[in-house]
Design goal:
By secondary structure, the chain is of the alpha/beta class. It contains eight helices and 13 strands. The radius of gyration is 19 Å and the shape is globular.
């Protein structure tokens, strides 16, 4: 078995590559860069998926892990290959999970197996419960538990519509549901709303980020990193709820050090 990491933006692909020195890295042009990796690598265009196959086969790749943020292509004028054009048009016209299923089918049909990220990445989940539970009052923990239950129920209910993996809620008031803008932009939006209507007696909204029902877990587990946690704190959010088996944590050691120092609440369900 030889693994390739298809690397989008952010630090997550770099973290995975550091733990898997023998993995080949396929950098997506404009999102990741070969000089950031010590691994053997190549750069490809998002608009040339058939070129990906050539490089993967030439490097004897059998299995693929996908990591990092990649936006859907918008400029389709440069696609000359009919098969590539068909695949990309399928992807841009459906929801996230449906698009990922098309991508997985594309690779499977060409002889490659998609692996979940956590199959090659160590220390990437929080254990169930509150991290640093003794740091928080029972009143606050009850508040987080109440919002975790409400937010998870909301995400499970809207899963059939194949929208985002995150919501922000506060005492059954829905501040935001993640759309195409992504988690961090959603948090910015919440920060404006919350700080315009802040009640200084409350604890602040709660971000819930967990997999959707029926989500393709091989390709798209939700991810939380230090940037997201800092953004939540800056925007007035009180806590983040994650899945103990389904929300990946980028650079867990750095995240743990930060939330210890700042006493920020993470609760894993």
């Amino acid at each position: 078995m030889k693994i390739a990491i298809i690397a989008g933006g952010g630090n997550f692909p770099i973290q995975i590559a550091r733990q898997n020195k023998d993995a080949f890295v396929l950098c997506i042009e404009g999102y990741s860069y070969q000089n950031l990796f010590e691994n053997q690598s190549a750069t490809v265009s998002l608009l040339e998926p058939l070129h990906w196959l050539t490089i993967l086969k030439n490097n004897n790749i059998t299995d693929i892990v996908m990591a990092g943020k990649i936006n859907r292509p918008s400029n389709l004028n440069n696609i000359s290959n009919e098969k590539a054009n068909e695949l990309i048009n399928q992807i841009i016209s459906v929801g996230d999970n449906a698009a990922l299923n098309y991508i997985e089918e594309f690779f499977n049909n060409n002889g490659f197996k998609i692996l979940p990220i956590n199959s090659i990445l160590k220390d990437c989940f929080f254990s169930k419960g509150f991290y640093m539970e003794d740091s928080f009052s029972q009143k606050f923990k009850d508040f987080v538990l109440k919002n975790a239950k409400f937010g998870a129920k909301l995400l499970n209910t809207i899963s059939k519509f194949d929208v985002g993996q995150s919501v922000v809620v506060n005492n059954e008031l829905v501040y935001a549901i993640e759309g195409l803008e992504g988690t961090n932009s959603m948090i910015d939006r919440v920060g404006v709303l919350y700080n315009q209507n802040k009640n200084h007696e409350d604890f602040g909204p709660v971000l819930i980020k967990i997999p959707k029902i029926g989500q393709n877990l091989n390709l798209d587990l939700p991810v939380i990193g230090l940037e997201t946690i800092k953004k939540c704190q800056l925007s007035g959010l009180s806590s983040i709820v994650v899945s103990s088996t389904g929300t990946l944590i980028v650079e867990l050691n750095k995240v743990v050090a930060y939330i210890k120092k700042n006493k920020f609440c993470i609760y894993a369900i």
